[in-house]
Amino acid sequence: MKERVAVVTGGAGFIGSTLVDRLLSDGYSVTVIDDFSSGQMENLENAKTVFGRDLNIEEIDVSSSSVSHLIADVAPEIVFHLAAQADVRRSVEDPIFDAEVNVLGTLRVLEGARLGDSRKVIMAASGGTLYGEPEPSQLPFSETLPANPLSPYGASKLAGGHYLSVYKHLYGMQTTALALANVYGPRQDPHGEAGVVAIFAGRLLRGESCTIFGTGEQTRDFVYVDDVVDAFISAASAADLQICNIGTGLETTVNELYQTMARTVGGTPELLREPARLGELDRSALDTSLANQFLGWHATTTLIEGIDKTLKWFATVERRES
């Protein structure tokens, strides 16, 4: 095991690349593993320029058998596992592919960490799908609720978390699964099936119509990407937690989100309504008491602040591409 060496799977994604920037700034050498099916090389360009040889980028599918050998050869102190098939709708349409990436991929990563004698593996789990649809009186959802995923994506991420526990039991490997709420911020992909904040940002800035599925009264817990990266960094040196929620504890409806973003942009583009989509939850927010207690962590960025930072970033990208 090499101290101050980290592997980040999914490191070209918007969360992963932001984490890579932080690790490099903190003095780590970092190997990124990403197949670039959704991550972007441009997310790593600044890190390549600034940190040079401290950043190694490997283009490879996380479910490939060679991933285990690659991680073992790097022998990192810590592995941050963020690579995933993260689209709930695609998991419903193709649950086998979802499991290949999220279950088999997690096993490949864990085997590599075991063979490389890594100290710890921290995985990005899904706080938005883990608990299913408990009674609204139980909001915000805490880790004491029984897991009840209602989509193949939620089930595959739950299985990945169980494999972390198995590796801890069998091999003494330190593990933590961070159950993330709805993460948003700069570098999130506004095209295709991306997070709603990124989709709204891109379309609002271009003056295009936005679509809300269902009534728009469904709620989510929107947490800013820099706060999430803080949680990953804190988890690296904290005690092991089988599952730990990372969010704000606050519910925001999709209607409220849209209105906030539209006011910030200053336009009133057409708003379209479509039927609700299969597999999506009505309400979600995460209790972060455990993170406060054991990680010394809490979200510090308000939704207004985060939306403002996100829109400014997207506006810069729009100007650069125009």
Keywords:
alpha/beta; 20% strand; 7-stranded parallel sheet; globular
Largest sheet: 7 strands, parallel
Helix content: 40-55%
Which structural class best describes the helix and strand composition? alpha/beta
Order of helices and strands: EHEHEHEHHEHHEEHEEEHEEHEHH
Give the neighbour order of strands across the main sheet.
Answer: 3-2-1-4-5-6-11
Question: Your description of this structure?
Answer:
The strands form 4 sheets. The chain has a 7-stranded parallel beta sheet with strand order 3-2-1-4-5-6-11, with helices on both faces. A two-stranded parallel ribbon has the order 7-10. A two-stranded parallel sheet has the order 8-13. Helix content is 43%, strand content 20%. The model has no long low-confidence stretch (mean pLDDT 94). The protein has 12 helices and 13 strands. The protein has helices at residues 14-25, 45-51, 66-74, 88-93, 95-115, 127-130, 152-171, 196-205, 225-237, 254-265, 289-295, 303-321; strands at 2-9, 29-34, 55-59, 76-81, 120-126, 174-180, 182-184, 210-213, 219-220, 222-224, 241-246, 252-253, 271-274. Helix 3 (66-74) runs parallel beside helix 5, helix 8 packs across helix 12 (303-321) and helix 10 (254-265) packs across helix 12 (303-321). Strand 1 (2-9), helix 1 and strand 2 form a beta-alpha-beta unit. 46% of the residues are buried.
